[in-house]
Amino acid sequence: MVLIPFLLCWGSFLNVLSHRLIRGVDIVFQRSRCPLCQKNISWFDLIPVFSWLLLQGKCRQCRGAISALYPFIEILTPLIMIPLILWTPLRYIPAYFLFFSALIVTIRSDIEHLLISRFVTLFLIPVGLLLSSVNALPITFLDSLIGALLGYGFLLAIASLFRWITKKDGMGQGDLELLAFIGSFTGIIGCWMSLLIGSILGTLYGLLCTPLSKKTSVKIPFGPFLSFGAISYVLWQQSILNALFGF
Question: Is the pTM of this model over 0.70?
């Protein structure tokens, strides 16, 4: 029971991390502020999920709308962390907890800003390599290294081909670095499976939501789909491999 409140609070912290990393704001010492009126938020208005619901998604002071991404991330965090803790061997939990936390930050920032901070992707690739080398991940150092290189190189080839054909950018640099980060924590197979699952989820979303939009051109962030692909692979790795390859 103690785990759920802790994870809700951790989700709240990841919200703050996502918001401030993109804007270059101090993470440690600056108090939480309303993004609209910039007034400090009292502690009793920072209770995960409940404060947002009690205030009906509005700032207590300026009554401006507060994004529903805040409670979404706070709820998402225990939804994926609890299965991780229950289903994963103890020795791998710290590494995957860090991995999932970085992916949650990525999901939030890419949905809101179409931007992915390198602090939670590119800069964590050496951490994935290190963790794999000390058996804190169920992959070897070589698997981690090739997974990172493969993830970046494959998306770079696709992005370059798309740009050559259409003369437009179809994929951001952040997506390339994100898949490289995913590869460093999940290895070669994890990198491919995350890309496969993410592509399927992204395609389904595009087919369902784009016709409903009034805009002729809709930018769809790929980062959240890659992130959910990686999360799905880690949580249901054996079931996915059994279904696709029979092992």
Answer: yes
